[in-house]
Amino acid sequence: AKTAGRNTFRFYASGMNAAVREELELENDLREAVERESFELYYQPKLDTVSGRMVGMEALIRWHHPRRGWVSPAEFIPLAESTGLIVRIDTWVLEEAVRQLSAWKKLGQALVPIAVNVSAREFASGNVLARIEQLIGRSGLPADLLELEITETTLMQDVDGTAPLLSALKKLGVGLAVDDFGTGYSSLNYLKRLPIEVLKIDQSFVSDIGTDEDDTTIVSAVIALAHSLRMKVVAEGVETEAQAAFLKEQGCDMSQGYLYSRPLPADELLAFWRRR
Ligand code: C2E
Ligand code: CA
Ligand code: CA
Ligand code: CA
């Protein structure tokens, strides 16, 4: 029994080592990727639910790892957050999004806003306002072409501390959206204390429209709540016609999801955009 126990332990320990080693390796690779800026921005269209026109898009980062291939942001963003690399990644994303807008403008494209995800760490760093002000100023683009998606959990961390920053961003003209709305188990009180214009209903609710009665009710309630607070609503993760029909019937303003388009590289996004 003792031997078995020791073997079990050894197996466990070496398993741990492998996991830790892999994590460290990924961290080193991520550091290198940040140095070399070996990321790409993909864009997912946001469509007006009634007209079907493309009225915005969300920028989503992709990392092409030299050996692993594409690594999902769901995997490396948490690592980037725990190591602090996220601040440089978020900066790169903001700059790339604005650079892309300028490139599309040069092509004569009538622009729509790009939404960029901002991590909690970046948001708390105190650099966001100055960085965005500078970026917008340099680009000569109107500030309302940039929208920030901030998760409900991030906003909830420090409502009072966040309020002045959001107000300053709003004054600058930048759009503000609450991401993953409904997953933060929050009191709804913060909503009226922050100058927010858009709620994004989390896809976990959208995916269960029609199959889970509670989730269906939550979706209707969020739309009604947002409208009563004079906010717009985006449904994310729309995959089926049935979901789209329900959202339209409920008056949801915008929809985003695989039903319409996956996130696309800039050139493919432009082709989709021009077809609409
Ligand atoms: P998120 O901000 O909630 O982004 C939505 C995620 O849902 C994206 O995954 C998108 O590709 C995916 N999605 C869109 N439509 C559908 C659909 O119809 N069905 C399904 N099943 N999924 C759909 P992605 O690109 O893998 O990103 C995952 C998360 O990583 C994002 O969640 C966001 O939290 C984070 N992230 C992505 N890009 C960035 C970035 O540039 N900066 C930061 N800080 N975080 C990012
Ligand atoms: Ca988002
Ligand atoms: Ca989301
Ligand atoms: Ca459910």
TrEMBL record:
Residues 23-276 form the EAL domain. It comes from the Bacteria. This is Diguanylate cyclase DosC. It comes from Saccharospirillum salsuginis.
